[in-house]
Amino acid sequence: MMYCCSGNTAVCSLLFGEPVASSSKSTEYVSESITYPQSPDKPDTSTCEKPSDSENSEFSEQPPKEKKKYTQKFRNVWLEEFPSLQCVKQEPICKICDKKLPCNYNHIDRHFKSKSHKLKSNILKTTVQIRQFVDPKKAHVKNSVKAAELKLTVFLHEHNLPFLLMNHLPKLIASTCPDSSIAKQLEIGRTKATNLTKNQLVEEALTELKEHLNINKLYSLIIDETTDISTKKSMAVIIRFHDNVSIKDRFLGLIEVENGTAKCLFETVSKLLKDNNITIENMTGLGADNCSVMMGNKVGVQTKFREINPTIIVMGCICHSLHLCASAAAVKLPKSVEEFLRNIINHF
């Protein structure tokens, strides 16, 4: 800027810091450059210095600040809500799936509602646990229940009762004995009693029978052919033996036969004896009805047995023989006597 200095030198020196020669006769103009501060909106680029490369590297190397993450701690309340959850070193683990879970309620709840967890849980419920075999009290009760069910099934056979009774008898026992843990755990019906008879009692009875026949090898057979309501022919076989105490009769089997011929009946009985390791040579007697198929002297069943063991004593059915004798005697009596007897029966 241009300043007019016509005053004394003292004023000029105060203003500009330099002495200026003055003259009364002449007017001199002095040009001086003065720097004033710029406004903050428009910085003075002429006086600003650029940052060096070292300063730029210092700013670039500083990483951004990370947000602080909140870690949830394990809460014991979760153990009450999820029984199969356990805490190991403050980390939740599912005992059923054997899986480590995030320590978060929503993740744990989502896992226990998943299909895979429910499937494994259902499998675990039906799996027999090892402690059931180790615990002597539970094992004793379980064995007692099995023994009670077998005794009830044998009770039906002993008193010739129907299997249908087993649908109601266990419930009656449980209601009569409410303080018995064995009675409460009885789970047997008609189907189970039938299976116990076929798969357990029959095998046990045959094993006991074989043991007696190994000691006392002599035996007798009582056989009879029958036809059921479905027109299927079957052969019932009963064996009689002595067990050093008394004579006993035991049911040996009920076998379905193709037809009622003497050959078919003989082969059926022979196969049954062979399957149970019973020889025909040890047979001492044979009992059957008096039909020609059984007692025929040429092709009857008793004839085929005597071909193998000639010492067999054959005896026809006494009841059948008595019926034949009574029928033959009634023919000789007057018809009025028979009608009189029938009228007496019909009257009462």
Would you mind describing this structure in some detail?
- With 348 residues, this protein is an alpha+beta fold.
- It has helices spanning 9-16, 53-61, 77-81, 105-112, 115-126, 130-134, 136-158, 169-176, 181-184, 190-215, 262-275, 292-295, 301-308, 318-332, 335-347, and strands at residues 2-5, 28-31, 85-88, 91-94, 99-100, 219-227, 233-242, 247-256, 283-288, 313-316.
- The protein is built from 15 helices and 10 strands.
- A hairpin with a 4-residue loop joins strand 7 (233-242) and strand 8 (247-256).
- The longest helix is centred in the middle third of the chain and has 26 residues, at 190-215.
- Residues 1-8 and 10-34 have low confidence and may be disordered.
Summarize the structure.
This protein has 348 residues and is of the alpha+beta class. Helix content is 47%, strand content 16%. The strands form three sheets. It has a five-stranded mixed sheet. Strands 3-4-5 form a three-stranded antiparallel sheet, with no helix packed on it. A two-stranded antiparallel ribbon has the order 1-2.
Query: Architecture of the largest domain, CATH level 2?
Result: 2-Layer Sandwich
Helix/strand structural class = alpha+beta
Shape: elongated
Number of helices: 15
Output the CATH class name of the largest domain: Alpha Beta
Classify the oligomer.
Answer: single chain
The overall average pLDDT, rounded, is 79
- Work out the strand percent: 15-25%
Sketch the major β-sheet: 5 strands, mixed
User: Which bin fits the share of residues in helices?
Assistant: 40-55%
CATH topology of the largest domain: Nucleotidyltransferase, domain 5
Number of domains: 4
The CATH superfamily of the largest domain appears as: ATPase, nucleotide binding domain
Radius of gyration: 57 Å
The end-to-end span amounts to 162 Å
Uncertain stretches of 5 or more adjacent residues: 1-8, 10-34
